[in-house]
Write a structure and sequence with these properties.
Helices cover 53% and strands 18% of the residues. By secondary structure, the chain is α+β, with helices and mostly antiparallel strands. The protein has a 6-stranded mixed beta sheet, with helices on both faces. Strands 6-5-9-12 form a 4-stranded antiparallel beta sheet, with no helix packed on it. It has a two-stranded antiparallel ribbon with strand order 3-4. Strand 3 (54-55) and strand 4 (59-60) form a beta hairpin.
Length: 440
Amino acid sequence: MRLLMIALAASLAAQAHDIPNDVTVQAFLKPEGQRLRLLVRAPMKAMRDVEFPQKGPGYLDLARSGPFLADAATLWIADAIAIYENDSRLPKPQVVATTVSLESDRSFATYEDALAHVTGVGLPLDTNVVWNQTMLDVLFEYPIQSEHSEFAIHPALDRLGVRTVTALRFLVPEPGGNHVVRAFEFDNDPGIVKLDPRWYQASLRFVREGFLHILDGTDHLLFLLCLVIPFRRFRGLIPVVTAFTVAHSITLIASAYNLGPDALWFPPLIETLIAASIVYMALENIVTTSTVRQRWMIAFGFGLVHGFGFSFALKQTLQFAGDHLLTSLLSFNIGVELGQLLVLAVLVPALELLFRYVVAERMGTIILSALVAHTAWHWMMERFDRLRQFRFEWPEINAAFLAGALRWLMLLVIVAALWWLGSGVLRRFVTGSRSAGENE
């Protein structure tokens, strides 16, 4: 019986120190004069190696917990966060204040409320609360040179849980003593993040994001493959790929400025349409042979759909754009274009070798397109099944709806103008190519 009790106690102790599955950390960062204040709220159950003093049947002993709270704040929070001023890492912070809060406490809604709460009286010492059902609130202070310096943060808080989400609000100082709140949300360890990036810093980050996204996007790569199979000359590919890039840039920028629908059914609809666009392009390669003009028009139309797909992937990353949203979007498109050029540099010679030495061009086109169509068809059906789970509701006709419709009407006018302009440029391009061929 005694051995059973010991085993049960050991089991309960092990469970008490298990790594939590989902942990949410809330934080405020505010530079003020020559000090930087960091307010952090984290669940105490995530601080597994600290033996907090207890009383009675497992209640936290608030009267004796002060030194343990400071140790936990240093070990699990301060040691995991690196803050940089003008690319120089700041020294370890001072733990100014700590307090224990109930999980239902809402003091971290604003910076002012959180600061008043952490530096306030705290819970009554006779409060009975289990230690792993509470939150640890901490105020750290760092010495800085100026509140107008460039700051960056590396919140490596991923060891707190299996998945750690850090919701950080950075208060950017402005002339007159005001502050603008810039919100971030990080999953696990995001690396070093510039909190108020310069335009070139944001641009470089988004060029990289666009480049990596096109290489990781299997559906976009398959669509690009279907586009280029019939045209393996870079001169013929220029209008096709350019039309696709211009089109997805339009809807990507429009979506980033909240001009796109925000209904729950919209993302699965776009994902279904992207798969359908791949099926269509693959079947067209099998059934018929398109001209350059037909192909670039199709690429432009489907590029509008793919642009919304890019926007879904970019939505979480736009928080790193700072005040340079348009610059970041254009940089992302440059990265996508560079990725497409890399893919084309590999695809075109590979297809040329395949059709010259392995299989006849027409047969190879049919085989490759059939394989792509088979894959995309399964994607389309799976995504359509998810789409059917949402109920479509007609929007209410009001002032907001009419304003949105007007914005989309303006966007359609711009798209039509670009279409007309592209047709003229392409017509001159083709005419010039023919004239050059005749002169030769």
